Amino acid sequence: MVDFSKVTFTPISPHAIRAQGATATARPKTLLRLVAKTAGVKGWAEVSYGGRGCVERAHWAAQLVKQWMNDQHPGVVDRMMVYLVGHNSLYLTPGVFPPPPSKPDQPPCSCGHDAAMWPPEARLRFDGLFARKEEAEALCLDIQALVLSGPAGGGGFNFGTRMDVSITKHFVERETVKWRCMMIKTVGIKEKSRNKTPVWRPPSLPINIPSLLTDTSIPAAETRGGKTVSYRVPRDWQPPLPPPPAPSGRVLMYNVAHSRSGDKSDTCNVSVIPYNPADLNRLLRVVTPEWVLSVYKPLVRGDAQARVYVLPGPAIINVTISPALDGGVSVSRRIDRHGKTLSDLILNQYVHLPPPDESIQRMGGPTAQSSCMDDVITKLRSAGLPVVDSHFTQKRIPTLDELQKYSSVLVYSYNS
User: Fold this and answer.
1) Cis omega before residue 247 (within 30°)?
2) Three-class secondary structure of residue 200 per DSSP
3) 18 pairs with which residues across the strands?
4) How do 2-3 and 23-24 pair as beta strands?
5) Are 292 and 322 spatial neighbours (Cβ–Cβ below 8 Å)?
6) In degrees rounded to 5, what are phi and psi of residue 306?
7) 305: nearest Cα among 383, 144, 413, 388
8) Average of pLDDT values for 194-219?
9) What DSSP line would sit under 251-293, residue for residue?
10) Class of residue 129 by CB neighbours under 10 A (exposed 0-12, middle 13-18, buried 19+)
């Protein structure tokens, strides 16, 4: 297994970055096994309304479909999600529909709709995971019934059903897994082998990147295979400097860090990467498990857990929330099944950023080399704070005073 928590990235030329600091541990005794099982029947349906009062008509269309579905299959409405694409389809904010217009007498704008009223168009979407195929097909039939029995002007109908499969995780002992490799010879493979079309391949090492403005070389890097990679850089080139630390007080997270998010089964993984590595410990005081759960409250259940990890080398905070994706990619009823847009939910928050900690600056900050990090661990242990392993894992949440005094680098779980 590879540990990337202490990896550092150093610009060495306009064309190259040196990554170093990764460590390896023994391979685990267990392997992850993914098991597929039938989850139900997915059914979805969409319809659009445009012009004046489009959101109001979408609202009544949703009420009609819900009533028709409940009349045919009582209780099945609880297995559906209803939202407006472009309004609350990503973050499931409370209230399916925007509030009524506040100034109905305001003259229309140049695009043909009232500026103070609803948007010029609304896309209504139903998404359900049903136990039976008949229930999913009923949704498709009911959305079509809106043509004759629903609000005027509905169009762009789209609907469908399919069987959904969920994925469960199991750990098995490595010794019980038998490896086998097979090759199946088919006509297709044989025909491809006769194709004489040349295939591009990357150039072999060593590599020398030329530049018209360069006449200074840097030490060549040597690979394990004995190959060398050399670069020539401009004589006056300097590595780019990070932006200044973020100001203290109320700030928008967009101005302090950037983020990426994704899925691992029903777990959402969100990274928080400060623009300036010196802001890492300041963000750790803000991005706590409690705060994370409050941000994602509309998307998670009451039993959801949030964990906050830190990679001191690249100065990155990694957040996991589970369960958070409505069962995972294969069965989720959300329009963003992978959770790729959930990173912006964190970045869109205003937070109170504490001032920089002078002790952190004196120690070199969380991105310092391993000798500095070892000094941090020594201070934590001498202060009686538990440090479980080299990943700086703690079994309890330290107080703010402890953070300010010892500038600890944390990996902690609010629910542990």
Assistant:
1) no
2) coil
3) 10
4) antiparallel
5) no
6) -120, 140
7) 413
8) 47
9) EEGGGTEEEEEEEETTEEEEEEEESSGGGHHHHHTTS-HHHHH
10) buried
**Residue from 121, 106, 148 nearest 52 by CA:** 121
What's the whole-number average pLDDT of the chain? 77
373: confidence class by pLDDT, cuts 50, 70, 90: very low
What are the residue ranges of helices labelled H in 133-200? 133-149, 187-193
Return the structure tokens found at 223. Answer: 């690979």
Question: How far, rounded to the nearest angstrom, does the alpha carbon of residue 216 sit from its chain's CA centroid?
Answer: 41
How many CA atoms lie less than 13 Å away from 299 in the CB half-sphere? 32
Among candidates 135, 146, 148, 162, which has minimal Cα distance to 47?
Answer: 146
Residue 134 has which token pair?
Answer: 């008949």
Q: What angle, rounded to 10 degrees, do the helices at 133-149 and 54-72 form?
A: 140
State the CB neighbour count (10 A cutoff) for residue 268. 28
Please state, in angstroms and rounded to a whole number, the distance separating the CA atoms of residues 263 and 272.
15
pLDDT bucket at 168, cuts 50 / 70 / 90? confident
What is the band of 216 on the pLDDT scale with cuts at 50, 70, 90? low
Cβ 146 vs Cβ 62: under 8 Å = no
Q: Which residue has the tokens 């600056």?
A: 361
